[in-house]
Give the backbone structure.
Amino acid sequence: MSATAFSLKEWIFTTDHKRVGVLYLIGSLAAFLLAGIMAMLMRAELTTVGPTVTTNPNAYNVWLYFHGAAMILGYQIPALTGFFANYYVPLMIGAKDVAFPRVNALSVWLYWMGIVLALLTFVIPDPPDIMWTGYPPYSSEFSPGNTSFYTFVVLLIGFSSIAGGINFITTIIKMRAPGITWNNLNIFIWSILAAFTLQIIFVPVLGVAVTLLSFDKYLGTNFFKAAAGGSSLIYENLFWFYSHPAVYVILLPAVGIIYEIVATFTRNRIFNYKMVVYGGFWGTVLLSGVVWAHHIYVSGMPNWIVILQVFTSLLISVPVGLLMVGLLGTLYKGAIEFRTPMLYASGFLFLFLIGGLTGIPNAMSGIYQQIHGTYWITGHFHYVMALSVTSAIIGGVYYIFPKLTGKMYKESLGKLSFILFIIGVNVTFFPWFIMGINGMPRRYYDYQQFPQFEGLQQLSTAGAVIIALSMLVVLIAWLHGLIAGEKSSDNPWGSKSLEWTHTVSPPPPGNFSEIPKLTADWSPYNYGRKQEEGKKIDEEL
Amino acid sequence: MQEHAIGHELKWHTSVWPLILSVGILFLLPLAFAFYFVYKMPMMSIISLGIGAPLIIISIAGWIKEGLEDAHGYSMGHSIWAMPIFILAEAMLFVGFFVAYWAMRLLSPIWPPAGTPEMPVLVPVIMTIILISSSVTIHFAEVNIEHEDRSGFLSWLIFTIILGAAFLGFSVYEWSELFHEGFNFKTNVYSTAFYSLTGFHGSHVLVGLGIFLSVLLPALAGRINKAFVKSASIYWHFVDIVWLFVVSQVYFW
């Protein structure tokens, strides 16, 4: 019985965390591809002022819906809390598997059912056209689309997330190998713990919000019907109560991956570990539930809430800032080696800086009144969550590639993909800030009233082609590595973390030949720098 | 191969049930709902239910059997840690519903809004008594497990299931009475909140009964997983506590 021979049965019925992780990866990359095609269609549509590829505005709305929903629910969250969490968590804490392997398999298949349901969008005569936000009363009364599919996609993937959260929180609490304490846990593990804490608390509220949409539309209840005494503001508040923390569900694991990459490629300890964990990750978790109203400043709410949320929204840049300080401190005086994952990590830092800085004015209600509903907002959230996080995900896959496949990708292809990526994203999305600040409204498929933006829109579309090209190179690099790559050693990066030092590539069933026993001075970031030297650098900073 | 030399476990663990359960859920909920309510195809909806429900029942039965046989050597002792986390998520679900209800209620100029009939008082009191008693009986069942008294455990468990079913019976009775008086989902914001909250809570009672049945059936054959019983009981107490919120907010406020 060979553990490496391919057997379909062993894949689709698998309960092994590594294989479940790969199933998540396949699903999320498929969602990424489809959502990317939707984005390309929209970019093509916007190359001329009037209708370009379609004369049907509703088709554009369906693309917009699918692009947003698939990117966030189908690609980013499952790639991070599905693939990376599954692959890394048991390996990093020295466990054979997660606490509930079969629940883990259930999570991934429920997510896949969500994908299947989302794909039906392209088959049914009445695809949802309600954006990923699904605001009533359009979605609950007037939309010709099938709102129930939107509801159930969210519910399936949401339930999958909650099951995953229960699983991983239990695993991290109960299944750490002897010697792994709360003070030498990998940063990535902390980020997953924080992200799943958010999922457990906030996903149910989103579930309620979208359920009520279908109740209103198909069962005739009155939650969002103003005429009967309901209010669509209830939906907006419930929705953003989840969907703002969702940004951190995506961001925190991405930051966790970047920390692993940066520590490995700088051969350095984590700068101010406790500040990063308690200040950065848990500070973000603590504040994330009280900032949602900055998405709906203009929807109508008492001024005192607006003012409060201006302060909390600005305040949350402090813990997020601590995360970035930790990263920069880890880079400082490190022996930086610019392999492909490290390039993507530096790309993350740059893209997140732009995204973060352009977000600060959005938090202030006075400025927000002027820029809401413009390309400024779309530019901001694409930089802060779409681009930076994608940089982390792709870099993370390059980083894990030798462990995942036992083979090495071609460094030149990796570097080429990064160069195309970083050029493409900036050419595509930076013009959005310029258009937005000059008043280009978002969500328009035909911008007759704003012909002056045609040039910038075309520049943006050209950038999108470069992004598509870079993704093609990524795909070639991975497939080439998978099929024809050179055999990799068990620890090609020279990392000190358990998944590299204590098991082979790719890890066998059960991960370790025996559960690792670690001494008190073990740390995943112990690169042999003397304690005093580390302290000296910390003091210098 | 290298892995053979180093790994103790040479086989990948598998289970067919997670995939089958997921497919069952896809048919039972989204597809059946869409066929019936969106596309007005009741026949297709019934077919979809007919595919989904058996798949779910078979896979849950298979899942439990596999777990009790402990085919993979996984310890089930972790469920006692998982249940509180699950309950936190469940609690947030109810928070979402209650917030929607409170918002509608506080925005409303008059309460109860026009169209609301005289609400029953006796039935919810009886239902409360039933549900609280069932929390007591499941506690006795647990005590009996501790004393290794299997028959005592079984009878208290069955008694709990009967109480839960009686609760649901009263719920159905009350709903049909109110429907009869013309008080339905569409009547006004109060009916919207009333049916959503009681219905959502009722669905939890139903799930709780399902969990108890999946404890009872193997237990009749002599197989009891203590950690699982404990988790089931914690879940039931939670459903009970939520009812106190439902009854105080929706009926008596």
About this structure: Chain A has one domain: 16-540. The beta strands of chain A are 407-408, 486-487. Chain A touches chain B through 75 residues (CB under 8 Å). The radius of gyration of chain A is 23 Å.
